[in-house]
Amino acid sequence: xxxxxxxxxxxxxxxxxxxxxxxxxxxxxxxxxxxxxxxxxxxxxxxxxxxxxxxxxxxxxxxxxxxxxxxxxxxxxxxxxxxxxxxxxxxxxxxxxxxxxxxxxxxxxxxxxxxxxxxxxxxxxxxxxxxxxxxxxxxxxxxxxxxxxxxxxxxxxxxxxxxxxxxxxxxxxxxxxxxxxxxxxxxxxxxxxxxxxxxxxxxxxxxxxxxxxxxxxxxxxxxxxxxxxxxxxxxxxxxxxxxxxxxxxxxxxxxxxxxxxxxxxxxxxxxxxxxxxxxxxxxxxxxxxxxxxxxxxxxxxxxxxxxxxxxxxxxxxxxxxxxxxxxxxxxxxxxxxxxxxxxxxxxxxxxxxxxxxxxxxxxxxxxxxxxxxxxxxxxxxxxxxxxxxxxxxxxxxxxxxxxxxxxxxxxxxxxxxxxxxxxxxxxxxxxxxxxxxxxxxxxxxxxxxxxxxxxxxxxxxxxxxxxxxxxxxxxxxxxxxxxxxxxxxxxxxxxxxxxxxxxxxxxxxxxxxxxxxxxxxxxxxxxxxxxxxxxxxxxxxxxxxxxxxxxxxxxxxxxxxxxxxxxxxxxxxxxxxxxxxxxxxxxxxxxxxxxxxxxxxxxxxxxxxxxxxxxxxxxxxxxxxxxxxxxxxxxxxxxxxxxxxxxxxxxxxxxxxxxxxxxxxxxxxxxxxxxxxxxxxxxxxxxxxxxxxxxxxxxxxxxxxxxxxxxxxxxxxxxxxxxxxxxxxxxxxxxxxxxxxxxx
Length: 744
Ligand code: Q9C
Ligand code: ZN
Known about the structure:
Elements (H helix, E strand, L loop, with lengths): L17 H11 L36 E2 L16 H6 L8 E5 L21 H12 L7 E4 L5 H4 L5 H9 L5 H8 L11 H20 L5 E4 L21 H13 L4 E5 L6 H7 L5 E5 L29 E2 L3 H4 L3 E6 L16 H11 L7 E5 L5 H16 L14 H14 L34 H20 L8 E6 L14 E2 L6 H8 L8 H18 L3 E8 L4 H14 L5 E6 L14 E7 L4 E4 L2 E5 L4 H19 L3 E6 L7 H10 L8 E6 L4 H11 L15 H14 L6 H4 L5
Parallel strand pairs: 2-3, 2-4, 4-9, 5-6, 5-8, 6-7, 8-9, 10-11, 10-12, 12-18, 13-14, 13-17, 14-16, 17-18
Antiparallel strand pairs: 1-3, 15-16
Helix pairs in contact: 1-8, 3-12, 7-8, 11-12, 15-16, 16-17, 18-21, 19-20
Bound molecules: N-{4-[(3-aminopropyl)amino]butyl}acetamide and zinc ion (ZN).
The site of N-{4-[(3-aminopropyl)amino]butyl}acetamide has 15 residues, from loops.
């Protein structure tokens, strides 16, 4: 495989296609699709971007910035500091999340009567922005004013004729605009549409620039019109230019990327993105949408799970194995029309679902995530969901998911169809055994019988009731303001080599002596001074977490005291507020022998012995010997159990001989922030490397874990152990079915 080819993916190692080779040439020299974009070498800005306004900055182009009120002024000196340089400064005030927006994008609106199109309105942006402001989230972001994309940039995806056609709409009369729209499905034009749509594309490109220059870690572009239905020469489904597809081409051309993942969680299939990349193996398009056997808009056969891409791109269209692809950038087509209350989607995703989705994607690409707004038409639901995404991008812990943790049968069927269709192309999907095909229950074409006739008085009453219930649900979801201390670290011995983020608290205090001594009496090993001091610190930290003063923490224990300290922490947690406690113990740590198996404690031991599950709350997994095995263990076992258990607190204990490399431990800790609202306590052995301690502290604070390096297959032993445990646990832990191919 060529050095720049997609890292994995469609397994057969393959030569890059001639088209790919041409594009690759385009990064350095002239490309065939657009002569201007990215043709300049490093150092000089490409056409369409101004040179950086900050003379002291060496970033590739200007990133126009509206400085956030109250943002750091230190280090600016002059009128303008490029965000690329702010990020490099060491005073710890750089913002991690960009918010790209321009008021002009509210100008386009529907000028005639059209019930299908009226939901795509300017208030979608203004309401979302208002909520972001109200919740103090806008102020925490680096605010970037959107620029218009150049016509060369539009040309990365769209035909010159189509761009000219759109340019021409600026001077058309309402009547002419309406007539033109007749050519397309579910589209309206306004004289400002061309300007708005160019700003929407430009916003996505600026976000990519801000993330790929390192100015920020991630960000959101709040744009309209949306983009994912738009095609090379066609507007479709409110979409004019394909914002995300252009951003992906731009990231390749301008920044030289080779593997980009697009995750499309809009409720509709982004057929536009699929068509644009279906023969391109460097862009993995993953869409999650309502299909209903072709009965949901846009009513296309190619939206089904068996669409896997064409030619060189076979396997790179996934309609529903990310780590095997190992993307360099994640673009999210962030539609919120699957959110509760949405008139188009009619689904029930609560706002917090979107923080979990965002968090899960942040473990990829070193956290380089760019979200771009697509659909979403219930103003309040949309706005709160947008807030949840921004909070997740900022690193705030996600609110725990509520409701029964049991996957719906139709969801399992969809996942299975995707697995079956993709398995020939992705070895990571084949490592858990063969995939029996389900008897599809949802293939029946009957509509769900409605108890009352639409339009009748009963229907109206039910509708009013549902909408009242929804408002009260959305009202309740007041966001708990970010805790003053998100992460605290309690160490006994000072470690000069340990670099902590500026906002991580170094905890000095200890629990009251009597309390510490009382707990220490349980174990001989805790009698020694060193162990007692460490225990006092751990207990103080634990109390802070249980009382809600601190969200997460990390503490070190001296070697012989690791297991006894863990034992005390478990007892203290269960006797002081935690209803359910998840312990993920890695290495030689035994479950406290007399701990009741009453469902309040889920004990997961990852260590080098055989797989065993004495009860549904006591599980032992051998330490996987390969990266692939470790990833499967975490994604297919640990995480489903954790989400299914719905703990109040997660303990991650790295005991003697834990055998985890720092990036593996970071992935584990990072993903375990999800199920318990970010309440995670990590216990380390004293003498762990400062590298490990530093990475874990950053991950608890909400930073992305480092990549795991090249994908490696799970060994047969790793796979066997997983299959065995699933067999033991699947009946009781329904969430395991999501990752398991074997469903009865
Ligand atoms: N009766 C986006 O969400 N309406 N576009 C279909 C069928 C068109 C959706 C209704 C929906 C377009 C970006
Ligand atoms: Zn949509």
